[in-house]
Each structure stands twice: as C-alpha cells, then as structure tokens.
Amino acid sequence: MAEEIKNEETREATEESEEVHEEKQEAVAEEKPLDKMTVKELREIGKEIPDLSGVTAMKKDELLAAIKKARGIEEEAPPAKEKKVKAAKGKVDAKALKGKIIQLKEERAKARQDKNKAQVDVLRRRINRLKKRTRKIA
Fold first, then answer.
1. 3-state helix, strand, coil in the chain (%, to 5)
2. Are the CB atoms for 94 and 132 separated by under 8 Å?
3. CB 108 within 8 A of CB 126
4. What are the helix and strand counts (H, E) for the chain?
5. What's the whole-model pTM score?
6. Residue 116 burial by CB count (10 A; 0-12/13-18/19+): exposed, middle or buried?
7. pLDDT per residue as tens digits for the range 101-118
8. Which among 25, 81, 96, 37 has a CA at the least distance from the CA of 61?
9. Contacts 24+ apart (CB under 8 A), 125-129
C-alpha cells in the first residue's frame, strides 16, 4: 500500500515537472529574440540562470554572450560589411598609414607636374587626414 502511494506521488511529480518544462519551452519560443531585448529584460533572464553572477554590472553585449552560452545558443556571425569595417579599423597601424602617405605624396607630385590643381587639393586633404590618424594611434 505504501509503495503504491509512493509510486503515485512520483508519477505526479514527474508529470508536473514535464508540464513545467513544456511551459518553459513555450515561453522561450514565444519571447522575442535576445538581440532585440532591452538590458532590463536581459538582466531578468540572467538572474534566473543560476550559474551567472554579476548580472547587474554587465553591459548588453556581455549579457547576450553569457545568456547565449548558458542556453547553448551559438553566436551568429555579423553581416560581412560590419565584419570588414571592424577588421580594417582594428588592424591599421602607423607603418601602414605612413606608407599610404608616401604613396599619396608621390601622386600629389605627379598631379603638380600635370598642373591638376583640383587633384592636388584632394590629395593634400587625404594626406592631412592620414597624418592626423597616425598621431591618434601614437
């Protein structure tokens, strides 16, 4: 008799846990994408994850990465244009800029010989901008 009661209780408990699990899956399916959520919404989700700590101090990018990692979601690659722009900004060094300045100076000298004042002016401005960038890097 006691075994039957225990069996019934365990069956009821497993049924309840399955229902709760299904409800959570439905809620996850119905909620908007993580990328579209606000920081407040992401923090609420982050607080529900037991392994995450320091959720209130995290920025949106950090929260997204942590939540996706906890849920087992793989990061989607950003569009190709954004990727190229970020890579170009990150890899620019002073030597590359100075090489470009030297090249532009040669073009400017040719434009002066050809008496192309408009081209000389354009090249002068480009050189000026590159010099400013080298100063910022240094």
1. 80, 0, 20
2. no
3. no
4. 6, 0
5. 0.36
6. middle
7. 999 999 999 999 999 999
8. 37
9. 127/101
